[in-house]
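Lab notebook, entry 715. We have the chain sequence and a SMILES string for magnesium ion, and the next step in the workflow is to get a structural model of the bound complex before anyone spends time on docking refinements. Request logged below.

Task: model protein plus magnesium ion, output structure tokens.
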Amino acid sequence: MPLVNAENLVKKYDKLTAVDGVSFHIDEGQIFGFLGPNGAGKSTTISMLSTYLEPTSGDAVIDGFSITRQTAKVKSIIGVVPQEIALYPTLTAIQNLKFYGKMYGMGGEELDQRCHELLDLVELWERRDSRVENFSGGMKRRINMAAGLLHQPRFLLLDEPTVGVDPQSREHIFDTIFKIRDAGTTILYTSHYMEEVELLCDYIAIMDKGKLVAGGTLKQLLSMLGEGGVIEIEVVPPGCPGGLVENMKMQNGVTAVRHEDSQLTISSKNSAHSLPPLLKVLEDSGCDIERLEIYTPNLEKLFIRLTGKELRE
Amino acid sequence: MKQMRKLRDIALKDLLVVGKDRGSWILLLITPLAIIMVASFALGPAFKGELKSQLLASNLDQGQIGRQLTDALGGREGLQIVEATPEECQALSVGDKKYKTALVIPEDFSSRILTGSDTSLQVYVDPTDNVNRPFMVGMIDGAASRLSGMVSAVRVAVSEVVKFAPETEPVTVAADAAPAAVQQMSQDPPVALRIDSASGMREVNMFDTQVPGYSVMFLLFGVMLGAEMLLGERDAGTLGRLLVAPVSKSAIMGGKLVAQFCIAMAQMAILFGVGHFVFGMHLGNSIPGLILMIAVTAFTATAFGLLLASVVKTRRQATSLGTLIVILMSALGGSWWPLDIVPGFMQVLGHITITAWALDGINALIIKGKNFTDILPDMAVLLVYGCICFIAGIKMFKFRNA
Ligand SMILES: Nc1ncnc2c1ncn2[C@@H]1O[C@H](COP(=O)(O)OP(=O)(O)OP(=O)(O)O)[C@@H](O)[C@H]1O
Ligand SMILES: [Mg+2]
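Result returned:
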């Protein structure tokens, strides 16, 4: 029984359809990732799930409550971490957290304790009395995230929480996300970095121009590209002896060989198995290898395959 | 109940944010106090007549009457007489020092008066001096008129004496009578003016008019800042964060308006407080009436700020349109000069502003010595004004960026 079930969500602005019939479901305890380039409609989808925007059509049910008809119920079980740093810059870290906690009806001892816990979690307890405006980008992001966690939501919506963050802070945010997941929270994570969703997400939905173009576990998605990989070899002298290309095509696992000037591009079902015989053929032909690269399949490649463009422009 | 608590917490948060913002303190309190001080100290002495007006005078008269005239101007009328040459008088300057008005008394002044012939006084004025000129000229004219009156009296007296005693020489009689008459110059005139404030009206000090005027102006600037802050929260996403939390829109808006109202009240309390305790501004007969009048004004201003936030698209527009409106309201509504002195149609036009109604009420209490019941109409108008702004503002405000 999935925690979240979205049916045909559509959001239209005047002329533009930002989200165009998106359906998906998220199992309890999962980290579900939306991967897509700028303007794909990730934030718009999150905004609809969080009741910030009303869908033009379609609906989603979160823990049994409709995002269009039971907004009050939905609000109290979700936590939202917006893409922008939605904090009061002149207030301190703890003042920000306490304020948002109160907005979720928390108070007193419970709120104090929760603030302490979360500031420990994001490792900013020492800085609790500093104004947020004096924090680094990464520290702000961490407080921004903590502010969405105060009321221990069942479902957490994270919209690109690593934008503008140095690698160390990013690691830190990942650690925190895993901790939250381990504590039983279901998470929706959006990003336009494939490495992030590859690392974090149990299920990945690839989004482009308001539509989901593919979805599955990392393994499932990569298998869409085929098991194999691509081997690129540059040889000297340029121009290959006759028969080399034909010879290579006959090797075990090789599916295609392209030849252009000094470069050979070989597709294979399994690079590891195909490489030794290919090298042997090359050696026999008397060519030297100038450069050799092996590409394993990744989401970037899949995205290009599916949409004809790169994930990052 | 829960929503009420959230409303309160939102209001407290806003108060904290504004309290920490140095820019708000400068606009809400420091600027108006600075302007009030500058305006009051600059204009105050002139209004109170404390500043001794200086008159450059060149007395060429060979007789006594010229001296008596300058003595009268310097004594009874309170001018400071600075002696100079006729050339200096014409140039309105002695060395580096400039003057606004000069008087030259001709050589034959006394002898002509004593012989019963007409004479004249030469007055030089600075044509750009619109403030003092009428007053100075009026003063010299007044003295000259009294002198003329005496000369006429002397002429009548002489002709009567000559009628009954034809053997007497008119010139001799005049020479005896004239000095006696001119002596009168330094004494109270037969018809003197008593000047008192009209019944119920009190002596007004400069702060009585300046403090309310600038307070209302900067109250409006304050709500403009509030409008900008509200839109800022919308841009920053903090408003969005409240919208996805279990907080009702009424609690969000309510909290913000309560905070804005409290800020407005505190601002007015501080400005009026400083006005009263530091500068000796009067508070009128009805303190509860004044507090209520200020509260109604603060409410209307707050509602107006909400409306401003609702009609503009961006923060920048809130600031630019807001500034334009506040300046216009202040000029039209009487923040800078009393509406009593502007033409009738401008007084009517002025009453489209919050400023005019607010100052009508406040001035009635502080300056005109009116009572609480007298300002009820002003309060009623402001309340209706505020309610219209409030309803329109609530209806039109967009919680999300377009
Ligand atoms: N309020 C709005 N009015 C009109 N168009 C909008 C509005 N908000 C978003 N859009 C458009 O909808 C599309 C999807 O935007 P969205 O913010 O959901 O993308 P995203 O996937 O989150 O991109 P990013 O990675 O840049 O955050 C974009 O083309 C955007 O220009
Ligand atoms: Mg986005």
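Notes for the group: Chain A touches chain B at residues 50-53, 72, 75-76, 78, 80, 82, 84-88, 90-91, 95, 99-100, 102-105, 147 (CB under 8 Å). Worth checking against the assay data. The pocket of adenosine-5'-triphosphate (ligand 1) is lined by residues A 13, 16, 18, 36, 38-44, 83, 192 (CB under 6 Å).
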